[in-house]
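Q: I'm a student working through a structural biology exercise. My instructor gave each of us a protein and asked us to get a predicted structure, then write a short paragraph describing it. Mine is Ribosomal protein L3 glutamine methyltransferase. I'm not confident about reading structure output yet, so if you can add a plain explanation after the tokens, that would really help. Here is the sequence I was given:
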Amino acid sequence: MTRASKSSLVTLGDFFRLAVRRFRAARLAYGHGTTNAVDEAAFLMLEALRLPIHNIDPWLELRPTAAEKARLLTLIDARISLRMPAPYLLGAAYMHGIRFHIDRRALIPRSFIGDLLVTGALPVGEPRRIKRVLDLCTGSGCLAILAALAFPHARIDAVDLSAGALALARRNVAAHRLGDRITLHRGDLFAPLARQHYDLIISNPPYVDAEGMGALPPEYRHEPRQALAAGDDGLDLVRRILAEAPKHLTRNGSLVCEIGRGRKPLERAFPDLPFVWLDTEQSEGEVFWIARTDLVRR
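A: Happy to help. First, here is the predicted structure for Ribosomal protein L3 glutamine methyltransferase. I'll explain a few features afterward.
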């Protein structure tokens, strides 16, 4: 960028429009909290300046300082040259307005289960009746935290195999002051839980199949492969979760699991299981719910 063109960047709106143009020209991939160049540019601008992220319009005439201008230009360049997802560049991600610390030790927070928790759309009855919740493959801890907020009388166990992800989750739990209700465990799925039982198990496990892994855009390759890859059909971990969940559910407990595009392979693999598919405004057939009684009956 020439000195003349830099001098024309005066307001936040100038930087925002520049980012949108450059992101579109670079044909970036999205899906880490935004779905298009406009929303990506707005998130990058607002979070970089620690402004409320919901709407950039009130801030378009703001005049960044020289240091802030330099930071914005660096972030725009990095987003394009590195194809790094914006949340990793900024160290933060949001789900329904709730902020989480994030870095490359864990998957960037995004899950349709989060939508279901926030909207109260899970078929589990009165929230106050949920006393124990398990979050498998917790990563950054985002779903465990949303579950704690959705079920205010519940204690949450959250499990992950990655020590790095759990360190990040610990930071998020502390930031939301939920350390007295959320306990983090390191281990392989149910292994560290002994004979604990839960009213609800939630999981956003690795579910990308081999074909999907081969076609991942560069942005997704910055995320931990262990948090994405799940074998030829994407069901390696889901099979284990279905097999072991009944041992850890209370009599009236249930399992909620996100599987991406794995619905058809799952229904072929388990034709006798009566999966209930929980759709959201942004998804269809990507999250299933099943009661313990149906898992045991099978």
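A: Here are two points you could use in your paragraph. Residues 20 and 39 are 9 Å apart (CA to CA). Strands lie at 92-95, 98-101, 132-136, 155-160, 182-186, 198-203, 249-258, 276-277, 287-291. It's a good idea to check both against the output above yourself.
Q: Great, thank you!
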